[in-house]
Specification:
about 350 residues; alpha/beta; TIM Barrel; 8-stranded mixed sheet; two-stranded antiparallel ribbon; about 35% helix; disordered N terminus
Length: about 350
Amino acid sequence: MPGFARRERFQQNLALVDADPDRRHRAGAPQLLKRAIAAVAQDAHQLRMRFSAMLIGADIVHVENVDPRQAERCVGDALREMPRDDWVLSSKVGRLLRPRGAAADPGERRHVMPFEPVYDYSYDGIMRSFEDSLQRLGLSRIDILYVHDIGIYQHGGEAHPALMRILRDSGYRALEELRRSGAVSAIGIGVNEREVLLEALEWGEWDAFLLAGRYTLLEQAPLDDLLPKCLARGTSIVVGGPLNSGILAGRDTWNYRTAPPEVVARVEAIRVVCDRYRIPLAAAALQFPLAHPAVAAIIPGPRNADEFCANLELFRHPIPLALWQELRQAGLLHPEAPTPA
């Protein structure tokens, strides 16, 4: 991948594909990126689909009902014949797949791969995870490598400090070595909590962070600390889950669970303002994060091609400046939050 230079790299006109899925969504994560919109698309039965309405007119992978342990195989099969310099590939490290000893649970989806994930943030674990990904993909290059799911949210407060020390003192050397050698062009972390990213900024040089659900129309706490630091350091932010697990798109889920009453009430207050201007709530939610200069892309996570195309239309939906002003005046936006022009 030519000349990755942190935030500037994401502004180029390329398709970006994330080959390692978020297990909670149980889907692969192809992303389209033109400092505009990235999409998680899904459906295992059609690995290659062309969307004529795309901003950059490229093929993307379409993966659904694919076990997370075989998503890289599907992504590699779908992309292998496409010109390699036309798209950017990211995947994740920090988990190894070990052969499963017991039989699969009868309730699991069909075609499950006989492996269980094991977390390993050491030098050897990162290298092994990277090499295994190349083998599963059947490709010779991964452009962006995220350390996946390190932090209290995933591992708990008791286990986190030791795991973070392993990454800092051991695994990070592997990431630096891969970047320095040109095996990858960028390194980062993909998590659901900003605190671990703030901690990592204290000792590492990171190109990009994939942060899910924490900088959205509903939540803007990273404006107080993480986003200013990322701007100063030149670290790009890719916002995962700009619809906050669906609560900003008419569903009742937030943070992968049923939304609590206080979250429902705040979303309803935002919806009332949007309705006053006849703006779909989801349109405002998709467009809001990209107004911040540190944010390079969003990953809305549609479940199928129709939802992808709907997201694209929502992203293009005109929104008057007065809507953002009213949200701020009502205390529904952070006072310092940039808004779309």
